[in-house]
Amino acid sequence: MNYNHLLAKRTARIKASAIREILKVVSQPGMISLAGGLPAPASFPLEIIDELSSLVINKYGSKAFQYSATEGFPELRDALTILLAQKGIHVTADDVCITSGSQGLLDGVGKVLISPGDKVVVEAPTYLGALQAFNSYGPEYICVPTDDDGIIPEYLEEVLKTQKIKFIYLVPTFQNPTGRTLSLKRRQKVAELIQKYDALLLEDDPYSDLRFRGTALPSIKSMAPDNVIYAGTLSKILAPGFRTGFYIAPAEIRHWLLLAKQGVDLHTGTYAQAIAAEYITGGYLQKQICRIIDIYKPKQEAMLAAMDAHFPDTFKWSHPEGGMFIWVEGPQDFDAGTMYRKAVEKKVAYVPGKYFYAHDGDGLGTMRLNFTVTDPELIEKAIHTLSDVIKAG
Ligand SMILES: Cc1ncc(COP(=O)(O)O)c(C=O)c1O
């Protein structure tokens, strides 16, 4: 039987992720991968999780395995208020809602807000998983250019002034894929613009805790609370397998997000939420963040030093103060897609940057390099190899 005619129109809009195809290559023997976006497995606090698993069973008993509220496990919602206060977001547990990863929220926002043809503003480049989540709802993307300080407010204002948009999607800190951070001045400007033009911002913030250097910046949510849905996650500071994300949204939007989530999964896994709650209230999170930074910082330094030593002068790259990625921009005639095949032959994988652009044909000379899963010596070797491949042309 042919099933294609059975597919919904929105299903046909979903494309297989190119990154998944790339990640298959990564598992080949001897490959050094700078391609993935995974946290370092060595950072997962397995012993603590082991202890907390028993604690949760003793403390909550069957409650940890029962259906629970769509909003989230009360103890976790409560615990997250402390984390959020550190980012200048002062809320009560009732304001915090839990999702199945922040990816669950991205899909929820798409479902609740986007009708086919609606305009959604994204950075160029932006997080591929957000594009995938929104795509099936049929938006038209308005791509706003970015530079070393993140999205350029003048271009954003031009869009807000002239077009009717549904929402803006930004990753302001240690962005995926660029690693770049929106400067304080620009955060203030974005906050001012969304208030001036009555626009809604989805602020996706999975990486801000992974700061190796410099001073933490306030969230845009803390500057314009009524205009922002703030999304956080425990994926990069505990473990992604918990599939535990969270958000703070204006009340009317939260209402619809919760109804949409009821139809998807009723609620995020109770047991994972209970362990996450104990993990935060037990004071493990701050220590774990320091531990992750201790693992990532030398890896990032090794990558930047190797790039300084080997990459041609015609290339430029981001120097993030944290996060998981470095973004490379080659000269005009550089094609990161063609070079990808040559690099794979030499056993190094990365992600060509074009996949992070909403519009085909953009970003052909760019690439995303990840430094979190590979050891510093192998990072140095991989960058050396990439430079050789670039220079060989
Ligand atoms: C910018 C951004 N948002 C959201 C996610 C999804 O994270 P999770 O669903 O694990 O919380 C990721 C994952 O890499 C990401 O980079």
Would you spell out the secondary-structure blueprint of this structure?
Layout: H1 9-12, H2 18-26, E1 32-33, H3 46-60, H4 74-85, E2 96-100, H5 101-113, E3 119-124, H6 128-135, E4 140-147, E5 150-151, H7 153-162, E6 167-170, H8 184-196, E7 201-204, E8 228-233, E9 244-248, H9 251-264, H10 270-281, H11 284-310, E10 316-317, E11 325-329, H12 336-345, E12 348-349, E13 351-352, E14 366-370, H13 376-392
Parallel strand pairs: 1-12, 3-4, 3-6, 6-7, 7-8
Antiparallel strand pairs: 2-9, 4-5, 8-9, 10-11, 11-14, 13-14
Bound molecules: pyridoxal-5'-phosphate.
Report what the structure shows:
With 393 residues, the protein is α/β, with parallel strands linked by helices. It folds into 2 domains: 4-45 and 287-392, Aspartate Aminotransferase, domain 1 (Alpha-Beta Complex), CATH 3.90.1150.10; 46-285, Aspartate Aminotransferase, domain 2 (3-Layer(aba) Sandwich). Helices cover 42% and strands 15% of the residues. The protein contains 13 helices and 14 strands. The strands form 3 sheets. The protein has an 8-stranded mixed sheet, with helices on both faces. Strands 10-11-14-13 form a 4-stranded antiparallel sheet. A hairpin with a 2-residue loop joins strand 4 and strand 5. It is globular and about 60 Å long. The termini are far apart. The mean pLDDT is 96. Pyridoxal-5'-phosphate binds next to helix 5.
